[in-house]
Write a structure and sequence with these properties.
Elements (H helix, E strand, L loop, with lengths): L1 H21 L5 E3 L3 E8 L3 E10 L7 E6 L4 E4 L10 E9 L5 E11 L5 E11 L4
Parallel strand pairs: 2-8
Antiparallel strand pairs: 1-3, 3-6, 4-7, 5-6, 7-8
Length: about 130
């Protein structure tokens, strides 16, 4: 009897886990995760708009966007992104005071199945006039 009870409990647990994995919740899918601007001159500002889709089944809510340095400024949708809808994350990188290879990482915090996503702006900052 004890074995039968344990078997029934195990079966319910498997069914519950399977049911949760079928519910996709919010899923953020970026069209691209990085952009490489190549060589830019020191002091240049470059920007890119990362397009994403909520391919999940519930609204996507971006709670915060964090950058790796003050040289990068993000703008993101403050309203929920409906299932199947697209949104845009605009990021501006200011190369003032920077030199050499730069990889500005932007972390996106949301209610998606992967709660932290990353995108990046890559550039090689050269002295002005070169």
């Amino acid at each position: 009897m004890k074995k039968l009870f344990l078997l029934v409990v195990f079966a319910f647990a498997v069914i519950a886990v399977q049911a949760q994995s079928d519910n996709k919740g919010a899923v953020i899918d970026f069209k691209e995760k990085s952009i490489d601007f190549g060589d830019i001159s020191q002091g240049d500002k470059v920007e890119h708009t990362f397009v994403f889709t909520n391919s999940g089944e519930t609204p996507l809510v971006i709670s915060n966007v964090a950058v790796s340095c003050g040289c990068t400024a993000p703008a993101w949708p403050k309203e929920p992104v409906a299932p199947g809808a697209t949104g845009e994350l605009k990021v501006v990188f200011n190369s003032a005071g920077k030199m050499g290879k730069q990889n500005s990482v932007v972390r996106i915090y949301s209610n998606a199945s992967e709660p932290i996503e990353k995108v990046s702006l890559i550039s090689n900052v050269l002295p002005r006039g070169k």
